[in-house]
């Protein structure tokens, strides 16, 4: 077992016993969040820990709501990629107490949503994984937040070769939004734990 998974399992065992424990796994694009969550999920299955994983990118809005809106590209990515208010009310705000969630899962190929029904048990560990999780609208909903800190140069090399060729999109959309998030929300300072991605 890797050191990071071991640390997180200890945190879950120390905090999540007998209750519903909301764990945020935050980090910028390609920082290693999904890989870490997969390894952690495997260990929790072995330990027969009740858990559910939510990927925040499953709940983005349709393309026409986040592209060519007249706003700067970084603003579209940070502020329009998700309906943050809807998610605050209908997702984050219900994680602690709801037994049943209905969520709109986005399909990139068809640019449409389908309904996802999730049954939540109690006690359980609910893991929310994604970018910008510590934005002010969502920060208060977690019991514990882990931030994966990974330099941009390393993260960029994890992109596919085709994706790397579109450097303008990174410069105008993703990197500016990431800089805004880091400068505005200080995720590395506000997280309960910082891990190197």
Describe this entry's structure for a reader.
By secondary structure, the protein is an alpha/beta fold. It contains eight helices and seven strands. The protein has helices at residues 3-15, 33-46, 73-80, 84-90, 152-157, 161-165, 167-185, 187-190; strands spanning 20-27, 51-55, 100-107, 112-119, 124-130, 144-149, 193-196. Helix 1 (3-15) packs across helix 2 and helix 3 packs across helix 7 (167-185). The protein is globular. The model has no long low-confidence stretch (mean pLDDT 92).
Mean model confidence by pLDDT = 92
How many individual β-strands? Answer: 7
- For this structure, the quaternary state is single chain
Distance between the termini: 16 Å
Report strand %. 15-25%
Poorly predicted tracts of residues:
none
Describe the global form: globular
Please count the helical segments.
8
Number of domains: 1
Major sheet, described briefly? 5 strands, parallel
Helix content: 25-40%
Briefly note the structural class of the backbone.
alpha/beta
CATH level 3 topology: Rossmann fold
CATH architecture identity:
3-Layer(aba) Sandwich
The H/E string reads HEHEHHEEEEHHHHE
Q: In order across it, which strands form the biggest sheet?
A: 2-5-1-6-7
CATH homologous superfamily name?
P-loop containing nucleotide triphosphate hydrolases
CATH top-level class: Alpha Beta
Radius of gyration: 17 Å
List the helices and strands and how they pair.
Elements: H1 3-15, E1 20-27, H2 33-46, E2 51-55, H3 73-80, H4 84-90, E3 100-107, E4 112-119, E5 124-130, E6 144-149, H5 152-157, H6 161-165, H7 167-185, H8 187-190, E7 193-196
Parallel strand pairs: 1-5, 1-6, 2-5, 6-7
Antiparallel strand pairs: 3-4
Keywords: Kinase, Transferase
Protein name: Kinase
GO molecular function, one term: kinase activity
């Amino acid at each position: 077992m890797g050191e990071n998974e071991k640390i997180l399992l200890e945190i879950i065992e120390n905090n999540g016993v007998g209750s519903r424990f909301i764990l945020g796994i935050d980090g910028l694009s390609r920082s290693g969040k999904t890989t870490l969550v997969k390894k952690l999920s495997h260990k929790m299955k072995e330990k027969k820990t009740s858990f559910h994983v939510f990927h925040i990118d499953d709940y983005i809005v349709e393309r026409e709501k986040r592209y060519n809106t007249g706003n700067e590209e970084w603003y579209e990515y940070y502020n329009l990629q998700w309906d943050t208010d809807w998610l605050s009310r209908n997702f984050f705000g219900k994680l602690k107490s709801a037994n049943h969630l209905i969520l709109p899962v986005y399909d990139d190929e068809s640019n449409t949503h389908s309904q996802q029904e999730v049954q939540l048990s109690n006690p359980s560990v609910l893991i929310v994984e994604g970018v910008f999780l510590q934005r002010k609208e969502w920060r208060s909903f977690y019991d514990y937040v882990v931030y994966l800190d990974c330099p941009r140069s390393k993260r960029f090399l994890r992109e596919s070769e085709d994706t790397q060729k579109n450097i303008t999109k990174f410069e105008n959309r993703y990197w500016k939004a990431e800089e805004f998030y880091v400068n505005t929300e200080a995720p590395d300072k506000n997280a309960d734990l910082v891990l190197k991605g």
